[in-house]
């Protein structure tokens, strides 16, 4: 069960309107790594959780917090477009500053949303559930969550640098701090799961069924050997099962592909041998009388 508290989790009040910045702020609301994405990702992971209740409880705690972040950013966007100039073209032409503002703002904030936020990114593309991951494997999901929080914090930090509004920066500083916590949270949960589940996902698959001679080989498929010095090419593997092997010149291990012709009803391009067998021969160019001028 959910219920709504009228107070925001943290202040979301700009010092002055800025409809151009409101358009930028849409990215951390409805973009791939925005608050709607992590909100839906965490909630569905929690609702679908079949593991220990402590994980379900933790996931739903953070998922519910992300609802609050969606509300904060939506509220901020609504205030940034509040009192946005709506002068006609003639007046805008007389005021270059107004024209510049109108030229950079998202017109849908006024036309479609009535001076409100929308579940879209900064380019106007609608949010999609395809941004979310809920696989049922907590280690795989928590690694995806860590990536989402890393990308999200990166974008909020960039937006912080794009404004000098103290009210906007105050809200963003709160979101940046929460993303710091959330990254640490997922790293702690990942470490805990790796101790019991192992480092490789899924841990339940019998490794005897994989091609083990290439399980720990780093293959150099580019010019140069700079990659040889990385941790991924030297020393013990992170699952503790072997040592990394560096393969300088990986050789093909498969067959040369030779696909048979498609059946006639596909109407593909027949090989030359088949064309001769069917008496098709080569196509003759159209005569000058048949050509269309």
Automatic annotation (TrEMBL):
Its cofactor is Mn(2+); Ca(2+). Binds 2 manganese ions per subunit. Binds 1 Ca(2+) ion per subunit. Ca(2+) binds at residues 57, 61, 220, 222, 224. Transmembrane segments: none annotated. The keyword Calcium applies. Residues 250-293 are annotated as: Disordered. One of its GO terms (molecular function) is metal ion binding. InterPro entries: Ferritin-like, Ferritin-like_SF, Mn_catalase, Mn_catalase_C, Mn_catalase_dom. Mn(2+) 2 binds at residue 66. Keywords: Calcium, Manganese, Metal-binding. Mn(2+) 1 binds at residues 35, 69, 149, 182. Pfam families: Mn_catalase (PF05067). The keyword Ribosomal protein does not apply. Belongs to the manganese catalase family. This is Manganese catalase. It comes from Gracilibacillus halophilus YIM-C55.5.
